[in-house]
Amino acid sequence: MKHVILVRYGEISLKGLNRNYFIDLLVKNIRNTLKRFESVKVQKIQGRIIVDLSEEDLEGALEAVTKVFGIVSVSPAIVVESDIDVIEKATLEQAKATDFKTFRITAKRGDKRFPIQSPELGRRLGAVVLRNIPDIKVDMHTPDMNLWVEVREETYIYHKFIQCNGGLPVGCSGKTALLLSGGIDSPVAGYMMAKRGVELIGVYFHSFPFTSDRAKDKVIDLAKIVSGYCGKVTLYVVPFTEIQTKIVEVCPERQTTIIIRRYMMRIAQEIARRNGAMSLTTGESLGQVASQTQEGLGATNAVVDLPVFRPLIGMDKQEIVAIAERIGTFETSILPYEDCCTIFVPKHPETKPKLEAVVKSERPMEEIAGPMIEKAIEDAEIIRV
Ligand code: ATP
Ligand code: MG
């Protein structure tokens, strides 16, 4: 008896994409996610992916594989020889190992060389289970346990269907530069882009000593959690203290927030370009704070030409928190280490900044910013998560 995980991917998500390319990429991502498990072998067979592994690796591998984008559901299964005696014995063993009062057998004969047709096989296996386990009943419609028996070259027996995250395999939609802060929103924004198949280049602006190294570690931890879903994140930790302090020194206080954000965008775009990323992504949500009004977003957008994706734009904080909790970033995000924006927040930030006014306020930075930006990018620490 062998153990496997059956992996199902959505047919709908294949539309418009090259099917084989999609599946090969998914196989590659699954292999990559499971590479720490020595027993694992991943292969594709007729419409699905099979992960072969030892019983010891099953639990850990199952937890990891359910996170991989592009997978709709998985089932842990046992695999036995396609021989009726062997199948009967294994079916009974599986039933005995499960707690249920009502059950059904769903038999599927995929290999026409097998002599018993599906309905007959179902009845026969059902009878074996009924005969050998006391106090149980057949229920074809809402059984406690639906035991699937799929006869192919080998026979797969399973009863658990674990729903996964769906989406597209990471790598099929190019790269984005994700402005990743230590907050609740941006890791969720990154998760959502990765779910659509985008590889993440994280960009974190670090203002040491205003933000401690613990704040930086927190961002690295968040990138690690997100990488559990998307495989890898390349994280740029950009030293931002000099630029930020300079802005506060030379620009009008009411507009410093927006100007700081404009410099973040400029630098992120440069990092995106150098990494072949086609867009920027932020965790902004309309109206959440003063800089996230339409005027504010417009003023931050104006400095870049790459498209800026804001997957949380129409979400309430509560909805974002619910996703953060589900994907496991929330606990880390609410750790109390300040990020640079909270330190440099003006007392009365402009909520409706006019672009011309911002450009004017920013003028003192113009002559001096170029070399500072270049230096910040050059000195950025690159962490492969
Ligand atoms: P988050 O939005 O992640 O919860 P936040 O609410 O503290 O963090 P905001 O001030 O709302 O951050 O900033 C909006 C967006 O700007 C963030 O979602 C993030 O994409 C980006 N951002 C803010 N600060 C930083 C930073 N220090 N480094 C990188 N990106 C940042
Ligand atoms: Mg926010």
From TrEMBL:
- Kindly provide the name given to this protein in its UniProt entry: Probable tRNA sulfurtransferase
The highest taxon in the source lineage is Bacteria
Q: Which organism is it from?
A: Eubacterium callanderi
List the Pfam families: ThiI, ThiI_fer, THUMP
Which is a GO BP term held by this UniProt record?
Answer: thiazole biosynthetic process
Q: Which UniProt keywords apply?
A: ATP-binding, Cytoplasm, Nucleotide-binding, RNA-binding, Thiamine biosynthesis, Transferase, tRNA-binding
The entry's cellular-component GO terms read: cytosol
* Record pathway: Cofactor biosynthesis; thiamine diphosphate biosynthesis
InterPro entries from the UniProt entry: Rossmann-like_a/b/a_fold, ThiI_AANH, ThiI_fer, ThiI_N, THUMP_dom, THUMP_ThiI, tRNA_STrfase, tRNA_sulfurtransferase_ThiI
Residues in domain THUMP? 59-161
Listed under catalytic activity are:
[ThiI sulfur-carrier protein]-S-sulfanyl-L-cysteine + a uridine in tRNA + 2 reduced [2Fe-2S]-[ferredoxin] + ATP + H(+) = [ThiI sulfur-carrier protein]-L-cysteine + a 4-thiouridine in tRNA + 2 oxidized [2Fe-2S]-[ferredoxin] + AMP + diphosphate; [ThiS sulfur-carrier protein]-C-terminal Gly-Gly-AMP + S-sulfanyl-L-cysteinyl-[cysteine desulfurase] + AH2 = [ThiS sulfur-carrier protein]-C-terminal-Gly-aminoethanethioate + L-cysteinyl-[cysteine desulfurase] + A + AMP + 2 H(+)
EC numbers on record: 2.8.1.4
Binding residues for ATP: L179, L180, Y204, F205, R261, G283, Q292
Q: Where in the cell is it found?
A: Cytoplasm
MF term (GO), any? ATP binding
The role this protein plays is: Catalyzes the ATP-dependent transfer of a sulfur to tRNA to produce 4-thiouridine in position 8 of tRNAs, which functions as a near-UV photosensor. Also catalyzes the transfer of sulfur to the sulfur carrier protein ThiS, forming ThiS-thiocarboxylate. This is a step in the synthesis of thiazole, in the thiamine biosynthesis pathway. The sulfur is donated as persulfide by IscS.
To which protein family does this belong? Belongs to the ThiI family.
